[in-house]
Amino acid sequence: MGGKVAVAIAAAAAVLLSCSVAAVMVGRRIKSRSKWRGVVEILKELEEACDTPVGRLRQLVDAMAVEMHAGLASEGGSKLKMLLTFFHHLPNGTEKGTYYALHLGGTYFRILRVHLGGERSYLDVQDVERHPIPSHLMNSTSEVLFNFLAFSLERFIEKEGNGSSSQGVKRELAFTFSFPLKHSSISSGVLIKWTKGFEISEMVGKDVAECLQGALNRRGLDMHVAALVNDTVGALSLGYYHDPDTVVAVVFGTGSNACYLERTDAIIKSQGLLTTSGNMVVNMEWGNFWSSHLPRTSYDIDLDAESSNPNDTGFEKMIAGLYLGDIVRRVILHMSQVSDIFGPTSSLLSEPYVLRTNSVSAMHEDDTHELREVARILKDLGVSEVPLKVRKLVVKICDVVTRRAGRLAAAGIAGILKKIGRDGSGGITSGRSRSEVQMQKRTVVAVEGGLYMNYTMFREYVEEALVEILGEEVSQYVVVKAMEDGSSIGSALLVASLQS
Ligand code: ADP
Ligand code: MG
User: Fold this and answer.
1) What pLDDT sits at residue 29?
2) DSSP labels for 214-230?
3) Which residues neighbour 247 within 8 Å (Cβ) at sequence distance 6 or greater?
4) H runs (alpha helix) in 365-455
5) How far is the CA of 74 from the centre of ligand 2 (A)?
């Protein structure tokens, strides 16, 4: 008997054991399924919070146009500063000579030289240099920053050698400056505030053209800062040079901003402002646009609170290159905290701005077998060996964030078109006669910036939403033109147009 009983007991124990193993496994699966469910829930919440149906976009179009009016009506009348630039003539193709531009962007600085032969087709862009701005300069002193820029210009000029056409002549320079300025003329303006992570507080209130000219003089450089040009205004100039239907320019780079050609009589806050053309380029500083219709998430709120300029540039923080990567990072971090699908939470993921928007586009547009590029970028963030479905989830996050950005950007553009009566709706009335708005004119929007030029999906979302907002018919009259290096080249053209 003993033997049989022992076997029976052993068998029963084995059954029990296997049952409990199975129970543990099922438990784990349920747990992991519920963790996965938590992540899917976060994704769903994100999608809902970032939703931009065309109705909402139209509300934003209206809000943008209304804010533009308010910003033009009085100083401080809107979050949109609607800054005067004093430029009222744009280059028309007859310019001649050799001109320089120095462009301080948010990530890069560029130096270039253009040679113009007096005909539109004779535009020779020479020696474009582009370098990342050393990060220590962003919170150094104005002296350190401008000495560095002057030094870079000196080296650029040294390379020209003796063969340069401009030898012996004072060199005329455009300073393309992509931060908000209060201009007092074409060639002078004081810094209103920094954006895009720059933090040199003693610069605020200083004339940046004077700072640059001073640094050039100290180095003994025979260069004259002939114009102070917002980067959007540079892009508008290059657009106009090639095509006089260009009346709006938008930059999507590290930051985002727009400018357009406005009638002086619509600039109520500067009554009596007279220009020979009857127009003036207005720098909107649209990064600071705000509306309750903007689809804001908890990630945006946290990003803003932890940024170097909280409660500022709310629109820019949803659409510009500096920020898109960080929104995506925040979503992934949140997911990795509620679930182990990303493995143990990587400490790198908690570091602001480690995930660059360049990497977001690389992941979003990853067409490799099994998303190897996504795996590589996640590995750099300390997240390794995640299964394919998690990599797909990351691609989806990139898509949601970038789609929202592109669609909001399109609403911004349509808002400007509405303000100037080019959106097919007849505009909102202000100093513009009825007969003028009724005829749909061809309108070119010049666009530049690293985000737009290099992130195909972003660009496609902008264009798609613009057609959705304007409708097929009106869209036919609106041409969006990409302008590579437009802000720097166009600024040099502006200086050229001042000489003629
Ligand atoms: P800046 O803002 O200094 O004038 P750019 O206009 O070249 O310079 O914009 C640079 C920014 O554009 C980068 O910081 C990044 O946010 C974005 N960007 C550049 N390349 C890509 C890319 N391949 N994919 C997505 N974003 C990009
Ligand atoms: Mg730029």
Assistant:
1) 55
2) HHHHHTT--EEEEEEE-
3) 236, 240, 260, 261, 420, 422, 443, 444
4) 372-380, 388-419, 434-438, 450-454
5) 28
Nearest CA to ligand 1 atom 1: 105
Least confident of 29-43, 53-67, 144-158, 295-309: 29-43
Q: Is 108 in the pocket of ligand 1 (CB under 6 A)?
A: yes
Q: What is the pLDDT of residues 375-384, one digit of tens each?
A: 999 999 999 9
* Phi, psi for 166 (deg, rounded to 5): -100, 10
At residue 23, the pLDDT reads 53
Q: Is the minimum distance from the CB of 490 to ligand 1 under 6 angstroms?
A: no
pLDDT-above-90 percentage for the chain: 82
Is residue 406 in contact with ligand 1, taking CB distance under 6 Å? no
Q: What residue type is assigned to position 131 of the chain?
A: H
Q: Decide whether any atom of ligand 1 lies within 6 Å of the 234 Cβ.
A: no
- What ligand has the least distance to the C-alpha of 109? 1
Q: Report which ligand 1 atom has the smallest distance to the Cα of 487.
A: 4
| For residue 156, pLDDT beyond 60 | yes
CA of 15 to the centre of ligand 1 (A): 62
User: Which ligand 1 atom is nearest residue 254's CA?
Assistant: 2
What is the reported pLDDT for 440? Answer: 80
Q: Is the pLDDT of residue 166 over 80?
A: no
Q: Is the pLDDT of residue 83 over 90?
A: yes
